[in-house]
Amino acid sequence: MELHQLTIDTARSAVQSRQVTALALAESHYARIAKEDARIGAYLTLCKERALEQADRMDRMAAEGKTLPPLGGVPVAVKDVMSTRGVRTTAASKILQHYIPPYDCTAVARMEAAGAVILGKTNCDEFAMGSSNENSGFHPVHNPRDLTRVPGGSSGGSAAAVAADMAVMALGSDTGGSIRQPASFCGVVGLMPTYGRVSRYGLIAFASSLDHIGPLTKTVKDAAIVLGTIAGRDPMDSTSADLPVPDYQAALEQPVRGMKVGVAKEYFGEGLDDEVRQSVESAIDKLRSLGCEITPVSLPHTSYAIPTYYIIATAEASANLARYDGVRYTSRASGVKSLSEMYRRTRDEGFGAEVKRRIMLGTYALSAGYYEAYYLKAQKVRTLLTRDFEEAFRKVDAIVTPTSPTAAFRLGDKSNDPLAMYLADIYTVTADLVGIPGISIPCGETKTKLPIGLQILGKHFDESTMLRLAHAYEQAA
Amino acid sequence: MKVTEKDVVHVADLANLELSSEERSGMVRNLNSILEYIDRLNELDTSNVEPMAQVSTRYDSGEREQGSSRIAHATREDILEGLRKSLPQDTALENAPDSDGTFFRVPKVIER
Questions:
Q1: What is the CA B12 to chain-centroid distance, rounded?
Q2: For range A259-274, the mean pLDDT
Q3: Per-position b or e across A23-49, b if 16+ CB within 10 A of its CB
Q4: Testing the interface with A: which of B16, B50, B112 to mutate, by most A Cβ within 10 A?
Q5: Which residue is closest to B97 within chain A, CA to CA?
Q6: Would the pLDDT of B60 be above 70?
Q7: Based on CB atoms within 10 Å of each CB, which residue in A93, A250, B48, B103 is the most buried?
Q8: Which ipTM did the prediction report?
Q9: What average pLDDT does this structure show over A335-361?
């Protein structure tokens, strides 16, 4: 069996039918990682012992003729911002380079309970802050489709691992586009659920009102399977929604004829690359030919999303990252004489440039005299952005946009211009601020063979409709 | 220029960062360029708009409720080990850079 042909279902049923063992499946992925990852850089830590134990458990179940759980024996990767008990978890930051969590993230625990074999932890931008993976405190990730280009970020290692067949799927996190944008750059599927659909317990916090965990997969069906596995109320996260989790796989089979699909002109303006525009427009034509009713909608505050995001996200980050002070999390600057010197030197040495920049911006926005002008203002604009979508979703069932204004850019292209980097998230940040779900699916390539992503946005807690449309497009394309 | 080097020093102090002199001058440049972009928020009149701190989980709570008033407040009984057992002391201290086995140990706090 070729690794690139493996999806969750094919991998699981091969293990179930004893056509291959979960152990062999894990080993062949480790062999692939050993061969490919030196030039890609997708993984930060491998947890082979834990993986092989789980694989063995699945093999014994299959040998006893028991039905495997939905991810039984499937080799997966986890972004290194999710805590894994006994396995180093760094958030790609030097400040956590030796940190070994004493507990598992809920999403990770649910994946393992569903039979997934966790191969290792994937690289990302430090504390998930970035759009290119160049902010990793360890090493950048290279796009498997073109090694001179970035894989996107911040879940760049997760996207690259799936794109290069070094995992069947990977978990990522999305605060401003960090699942969807790298999925689009690497040519895979990336799903961000509704805020509150998936527990954030054990996710290393960046911006708590914006952070989401979700899957990067090869197919829309795989995204549906994983979402069904990790979704649902968790008492350990008081913001996780106490709502029933629908059968997402069943939703895929529902027809899309007559579905009302919104297109907002604000997502096709200045800065959108021509090839991306053409691909997304052809995708919209395809949806029309499938019987969807394409309807113009207006999201008038779209251009205010990036400034709003960079106030709210940095303000929350400045508070969340205060805990890395040299007391509890392994790193402490040496030779310090006072408590305050210990705080400062530990943080100065441990944080990278972008993390310091965001802590500074967030602290500034929350500081006396600026709170109302910046933080409160941004919170009010967040309400306006939410109203835009509430209004649009009165008319349509889903909205389609490009995922990113361009295909993958070159390493180094934007790394010296923070503002240019922030604008790479221009089509993704709004969904995080509003809390609605979004998915990026491949919708073609540029002339130079770089993947292009189509983004579908859904109503709050209506991932089913979004997945149904994504699946219909994927099958037709 | 909205942000001066003096502001950067003050904010770094609030954030428990020190920053080298190169980092400081880079920060002055970066923060000014980002804040200039952020200033476009002032084009919007938000005098009658409620702030939104959190995405609500009560989307069916009625159209009239906007912004933060839509937050569903989660509460639970305050009971010992209500959600899960607390970490044992030795586990909680495993990642400590310095401890005496019972407490986290830090440099002297009060100087005389």
A1: 14
A2: 96
A3: bebbbbbbebbeebbeebbbbbebbee
A4: B16
A5: A330
A6: no
A7: A93
A8: 0.92
A9: 96
Residue B74: pLDDT band (50, 70, 90) is low
pLDDT at A392 over 50: yes
Look over chain A and give the mean of its residue pLDDT values, rounded to a whole number.
97
The 3 state secondary structure assigned to A194-249 is CCCCECCCCECCCCCCCCEEEEEECCHHHHHHHHHHHECCCCCCCCCCCCCCCCHH
Q: Which of A116, A235, A210, A221 is nearest to A171 (CA)?
A: A116
CA-based nearest residue in chain A for residue B70: A383
How large is the average pLDDT for residues A374-385? 96
Between CA B65 and CA A87 the distance in angstroms is 44
Do B60 and B40 form a contact (C-beta atoms < 8 A)? no
Stated as kind and residue range, the H or E segment containing A170 is: strand A169-174
How far is the C-alpha of A221 from the C-alpha of A70, rounded, in Å? 12
Instruction: Decide: helix, strand or coil at residue A122.
Output: strand
Q: What confidence tier does B84 reach under pLDDT thresholds 50, 70, 90?
A: confident
B79: contact with A, CB 8 A cutoff: no
Closest by CA to A278, choosing from A469, A444, A451, A477, is A444
Decide if A218 is catalytic.
no
Range in A86-100, A229-243, A453-467, B11-25 the model is least confident about = A229-243
pLDDT of residue B56: 64
Q: Would you tell me how many other CB atoms lie within 10 Å of the CB of residue A388?
A: 22
Is it true that the peptide bond before A208 is cis, omega within 30 degrees of 0?
A: no
Residue of A nearest to B14 (CA): A363
Q: What is the pLDDT of residue B73?
A: 57
Residue B78 confidence (pLDDT): 82
Write down the H helix ranges in A64-147.
106-113
> Are residues B41 and A422, on separate chains, in Cβ contact within 8 Å?
no
What pLDDT is stored for residue A242 in this prediction?
84
Please compute the mean of the pLDDT values over residues A440-454 and round it to a whole number: 98
Q: What are the residue ranges of helices labelled H in chain B?
A: 5-14, 21-38, 89-92
Distance of CA A10 to the CA centre of its chain: 23
Q: Could you give the CA distance from residue A176 to residue A31 in angstroms, rounded to a whole number?
A: 34
Cα–Cα distance, A64 to A357 (Å, whole number): 55
C-alpha–C-alpha distance, residues A40 and A143, integer Å: 7
Residue A345, pLDDT score: 97
Q: Is the Cα dihedral A465, A477, A160, A9 positive or negative?
A: positive
Q: Which residues of chain A make contact with B66, given a CB cutoff of 8 A?
A: 383, 387
Query: What tokens appear for A75 in the block?
Result: 């080799």
Write the Ramachandran bin of A439: left for phi over 0, alpha for psi from -120 to 50, otherwise beta.
Answer: beta
Nearest to A149 by CA among A446, A358, A474, A427: A446
User: Among this protein's residues, is A440 annotated catalytic?
Assistant: no
Cβ pair A408, A276 in contact under 8 A: no
